[in-house]
Amino acid sequence: MNLTRDLERARAEIERHAKAFGLDFFPTIFELVDHDELNEVAAFGGFPTRYPHWRFGMEFDRLQKGYRYGLSKIYELVINNDPCYAYLMKSNSLVDQKLVMAHVFGHCDFFKNNVYFAHTDRKMVDRMANHGTILRNLMERHGVADVEAFLDRCLALDNLIDPHSKALRRAAPPPKEEGDAPPAAPAKLKAKSYMDRFVNPGRFLEQQKRDDQAQLRQDARFPSRPQRDVLKFLLDHAPLKRWQQEVLSLVREEAYYFAPQAQTKIMNEGWASYWHSTIMTRRVLRDSEVIDFADHHAGTLATSPGRLNPYKLGIELYRSIEERWDKGRFGKEWEHCESLVERRRFDRRLGQGREKIFEVRRLHCDVTFVDTFLDQDFCDAQEMYVYRTNPRTGRPEVASRDHSLVKEQLLFGLSNSGQPIVEVVDGNHDNRGELRLVHRFEGLELDLKFAGETLKVLETLWGRPVCIESKLDGKGTLVRCEKGEISTKEVAASGASDRPRDDK
Amino acid sequence: MIRRIERDRTRFRDLVRGKIKQDLKRFVAHGEMLGRKGKDLISIPLPGLELPHFRFGDNKKEGVGQGAGEPKSGEGEAGDAPGEHLLEVEVPLSELAQLLGEELALPRIEPRGKREMVAPAGRYVGVRRTGPESLRHAKRTLRAAMKRQLIAGTFDPQDPCIVPIRGDRHYRSWKSKPAAQSAAAVIYMMDVSGSMGKEQKELVRAEAFWIDCWLKSQYRSLEIRYLVHDAAAREVDESTFFHLRESGGTKISAAYELCAKLMREEYPPASWNVYPFHFSDGDNWSGRDTERCVELMKQELLPGCNQFCYGQVRSAYGSGQFKKDLDAALAGDERLVTTEIPDRDGILASIKTFLGKGR
C-alpha cells in the first residue's frame, strides 16, 4: 500500500464505516498508480503478473488511446482475491478517491459473499503468476511462435465452458463394466406360469425393453450426454501433446475464474454503487465536496436512450427491494391489494429492507436478480421500455412498456452472459471421428463468418473435421469444416431447437 | 527494465505490421482505406487479428432502454456494412508510408532548399484562472460559482440561479510548440474530359493517396493543390477533384499553363520542392497543343520542379498518344517521369516509377 497521508486517513475512515454498515470483505490493499500503470494492469485483466500475449498489448494500446483522447478513463480496478487488490488513479481528486474507495469495498464484499464467486480461487494473483511462469517456460522449450499460436487457438474457444458446472453436479455417467451388456430380453420376475401374466404384464415388459434400448443408444453415444464444457471435452479426448494440454487447461481455469464476473455485472456494479452512495452521503462527505461527488455519481449512473447502464439498473433494483421489504410490500397481502391508493400508502413498517438486500447479494446472479425483482411498478418508475427497429423507417421505436416483455428481453441478453450456448453432442459423428457441436438456438443467430473461423481453430485442435448445427434464416443449418474448408448445408432441425433434458 | 506490457504491445504491433505488409498490395489496389482517412491515423480493417469466437450475429434489432425519451439509433452503427466484424487497427500514416517504402524499396528524398521554417503552434492543455473571455470554460466556471454559493448559503434549490463572479472564472490555457512549416508542394492535375470515367478517377484517387502518404512522410508538411482541366483549367478543392465529372474536349496545355503560373507566383523553386502530377488518359485535342505542352514543359515546368510525373490511365476511349509524344520529345530528361496505369494492380508499379528516384 502506498497511499498518501490524506488518502490513508480517508481509507481508514471509509473502511470503518463500511464495516459498521455490515459489509464483510477480505483485507483490501489499495495501490496508487498513474494512468500508464493503471492501463497496464487493466489490459492484463487486473493481473500484472499474467502470461505474455499480444492481446494484452492490443488492449493496452486501446486504453492508452482512449485515455489520451479523453474518451475513456478508468477510475478504479479491483481484483477478486484474498487479499483484495484495488488500484486508484493518482490524478483523481480526493473526493473521487473517496468515492472509489467506498465503491471498492462494495465490490470486495460482493466477491467474498456472492455464492457465484464461491468456487473462484482466492489466491488467483499467485495462480496467475504461476500460469505466467508455466507459459514462459513452455515458450522457452517449444518456441514462442508455436506456443503463442496454440494459445491463440485456446483463447478462441474460451467461452465454451459450463459456468454452472462448478455449483451443481451434472449426472455422472454410470460406471461401465466390460462385458456388462444389457440382457437381450428384459428380466422377468419369477412367477408361476398362471401368474406370469399378472406379475410380468406385457405392457411393463414392452416398456422395459424400450428403456433398455434407449439406454443402449445413449451409451453408444460419445459423449453419452451433450457436454457444454467443450474445453473439458477437448482436454479429455483431443489428441493433444502434453504441453498443449497444460496450456488448454490453464486457459480453461482462467475462463472459469472470470465467468462469475460476467454473470453478476448488474448485481456487482449495482451493489458497489449502492454502497458508495450510502457511505458517502450518510457518513463521509464534507459540505465542500457535495457538488463534485454529485457530478461524478450522476455521470456513473447516467442513462442514454436505447442503452442500459448496469450501474443504474443495479442500484435502482437494490433500492426498490430495500423499500419494498422496509414497507412489507411483498407476499399475499401486497399481491392482492388492488386499490391504487392503498398500494401507494401500503406500509407494514417491517424495516427488513437492509437485511433483504444483503440476502439478495448473497444468493442471486443477474438472471435470477432481474427475474425475481423486476416488476411492473419498477418498470414504470424507471421508465423502462423495449425498443424495436421499425422495418419501414429503419429507426428504433418504443415497442412496449410492459414489464413482462421488458424482463423477457433483458433476460434474453443476460442468459449465459450473452454468449451462445454450445454443446458437444457427438465426438464420433458418422463413425468417422468428426466432432459435432450443437448451438442451442434461442432466437439469435450465430455470426456465420466468425463461426467458420472458430471451426477452423477447433479442427486444428481436434485433428478431424468438425461441424456445428445451428439455425440460419429459420432453417436448421450445419456448418462444417474439413481441412480448413467451410461448407454449409441445410439439415432437418433436430437438436438445435429442442433442448434434451439431461436431468431426468 | 522494460515494462511487461511493452513487450506485449511490441508483439502486437509487429503482428499488425506483418499483416499489413502481407496485404499491402491488396490495400493499395482496392483503396479500401481511403474512405476512413483521419488526420494522422488511418483505420485498417484486419481480419485474423481478432480472435474468433462463437458469437451472435448482428441481428439484434431490439433491446431494453431506460429513461425518458425515445431511443435513438446508435451513431455510426447503421452505416457500417452488415455482418462484417473486422478488427480495425489504427495505424499512423507515417508508419504506412514506411511500410510502402520498405515494400517498394523507395529511396529517401533529398529535399532541396533549406526552407524548413519553424513557426509556433498552440494546443489546449489545461485550465487556469485568468485568460481571455473567448476561452472561458463554462462548466468549470459554473461549478465553481455553484460551490461558492452553496458555501455562502446563497444557493436556493427552489430557484437554482447561479451567478458567476470574477473569482469563479476558469479559462482554457494552451502551450505552444514549434511546428515545421511546409517546404514541399504537390500539384495534382487531372483530365476530367468526357473520356475519363469513374473507374479512371478511382485509379487516380488511389494513387494520389499513396503518393501523399509517402511525400508526407518525407516532408514535415505538405501543400497540396488540385487542378482539373478539360478544354480549360481551373483550381478546385480536394473533394471536387475526386468527384467532379465533366465532359468536353481536352486541352492539356491549359492545365500546364495554370500549373506554371502557380509555380511562378507561389512556389518559387529556390525555396520549394514542387511535385506536379498529371493524370490523363492520353488523348489531347490536337498535335499543336501537344507541342505547346512540350514547350511549356521545357521552359517552365521542368526547371521549376523536383520532378514532373505524368501518369496515363488506360481508358476505353483514349488513344494514349500523349505519353508517346512526351517521351519522344523529352527523351533523356530525368526530371520527367511517365508511367502507364493499366488497372488497379498497376498502381504500385506506377508509384515505384514515380518515387523510385528519390528526387
Would you kindly provide a written description of the structure presented here, covering whatever features stand out?
Chain A folds into four domains: 135 residues, Arc Repressor Mutant, subunit A (Orthogonal Bundle); 76 residues, no CATH class; 108 residues, no CATH class; 71 residues, no CATH class. By secondary structure, chain A is α+β, with helices and mostly antiparallel strands. Chain A has a five-stranded mixed beta sheet with strand order 6-7-8-9-10. In chain A, strands 1-3-2 form a three-stranded mixed beta sheet. In chain A, strands 4-5 form a two-stranded antiparallel ribbon. Chain B has 359 residues and is α/β, with parallel strands linked by helices. Chain B has three domains: 67 residues, no CATH class; 60 residues, no CATH class; 174 residues, Rossmann fold. A six-stranded mixed beta sheet of chain B has the order 8-7-6-9-10-11, with helices on both faces. In chain B, β6, α4 and β7 form a beta-alpha-beta unit. The radius of gyration of chain B is 27 Å and the shape is extended. At the A-B interface, α3, α6, α12, β4 and β5 of A face α1, β2 and α3 of B.
| % residues in beta strands of chain B | 15-25%
Cα Rg of chain B:
27 Å
Regions with little confidence, pLDDT below 50 for 5+ residues of chain A: 495-504
Share of helix among residues of chain A? 40-55%
Going by CATH, the architecture of the largest domain in chain B would be 3-Layer(aba) Sandwich
CATH topology of the largest domain in chain A: Arc Repressor Mutant, subunit A
Number of alpha- plus pi-helical segments of chain B: 9
Low-confidence stretches of chain B: 73-85
Overall form of chain A: globular
Helix vs. strand class of chain A: alpha+beta
Number of spatially distinct domains of chain B: 3
Compute the number of strand runs of chain B: 11
Provide the β-strand percentage band of chain A: 5-15%
The description of the largest β-sheet of chain A is: 5 strands, mixed
CATH fold group of the largest domain in chain B: Rossmann fold
Count of helices of chain A? 20
Mean pLDDT of chain B: 78
CATH architectural category of the largest domain in chain A: Orthogonal Bundle
Q: What is the CATH top level name of the largest domain in chain A?
A: Mainly Alpha
CATH superfamily of the largest domain in chain B: von Willebrand factor, type A domain
What is the domain tally of chain A? 4
